[in-house]
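Annex B, item 7. Sequence and structure tokens for protein A, then protein B.
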Amino acid sequence: EVTDVSGRGVGMDVVRSTVEDLDGEVEIESEPGDGTTIRLVLPVSVAIDDVLFVECGDEEFGVPTKVVRDIGSAAAVEQRDDHEVVRTDDGDETPLVRLGDVLGSPGSARADGGCMLLHVRGDVRDVALHCDRVQGQQEVVVKPYDDVLGGIPGLSGATVLGEGEVVNILDVKTL
């Protein structure tokens, strides 16, 4: 359908600005009668990763799915001396990390008791992450943090969602 923006490069402008935000380039070569070649050049520091999005208070964070063993209800949380643990099916106790507290997320936790636990794979870190809600899973482009932001414990990078929202990706090893 012909519209007032048809053929004006509006779609490619969005592609170009997104790629340039990632410190990349868009190259377009066109030969009449032969077609058009569009080449996206991205730096090696940009990675595509499968991410599980979780909600803590009023914020959303991403957790790489490769570090998650399973997802469950927060009903199994128990108090042990001065810390909280989660009892696993085999009777072991896994330390609990409340993401909202560790990350200082504004907003309150869910009052309906429907909170969730992400059990991290033991070879990564023996811990269960407590969050308010699991939003879903998606493959995203992750831009790793370097320089000033690279030294912040618990954060490994960020992604930009389709609506332009920036979501921090967590590094569970340093949380």
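Protein B:
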Amino acid sequence: MRVLITGIAGFIGSHLADRLLERGHEVTGIDNMTTGRKGNIPADVNFVYGHIANGFPLERAYAYAKPEVVYHCAANYKDPQHWQEDILTNALGTAEVVKNALRKDVRRIVYFQTSLCYGLHPDEQPISLEHPLRPSNSYAISKTCGERYIAMSGLEFVSLRLANIYGPRNLSGPIPTFYKRLVAHEPCTVASSRRDFVYVDDLIDVAVAAEGSEPGYYHVASGRDYEIQDVFNEVRDAVGSDAKPRTIPHGSDDAPTLLLDPTRTLREFGWRASTPLTEGVPEAVAWYDENGVGETYTHLSLKG
């Protein structure tokens, strides 16, 4: 199978490329390296440098790939106030990906959507796929706009609405932030919010199978949420620290909890998230020890 991956130098895109190459697929990728790392790109990938909203590099990537399936992983999330870049990448960039897919007779697009599409205060927990979409920050609004462009295109698609994905190469969210502060002996802040955490290899199991599944929307989630304090404790133990964090209420731009109902995913894929935090967090920490973290990213105003 011939595949194009947008955002291939990023966390999810690079893990997906590794798995698809292992299975013998032909993989082309595009990335502008805003948050991606060169070392994440597998050697056997046909790589195009550029922004997905820029017509020339994206058209070149499609020309090289001649893709049957497009995995659209590229997203901007590094600054909650950078609305223009969120729109450029997540909305306009997705529209360009879709327009090219229509011209190139792509069979299917697989999209990676945020659970923040349901808003900060959903009507139900766990959240069903039928829940109204109420994105309320720039990242979620622009990602949901991209999802709608895909849906209205008429292309066959799968949209994977994600719990918090973590693991090696991840540079966003609490785990790399806690790691960076702990190894630097800096204070950590733990919010009172809760999240469902899914290890990246478990997500990739679903993503690879999604090229041949029933089209539509799916939740990639374990169905269990954890206190952020629990996540901090796992990172602290993996680092070998005895630090104690400062605990604060969740911020006004942070959902108290986002717990997704994965029933359809379990039914369609026969899949359950199988990697516990006690195994996944040490794997992420081992990668950080070897590769470093550098800058970390969040869509929230609180950064530590």
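Comment on protein B: DSSP finds nine helices and 14 strands in the chain.
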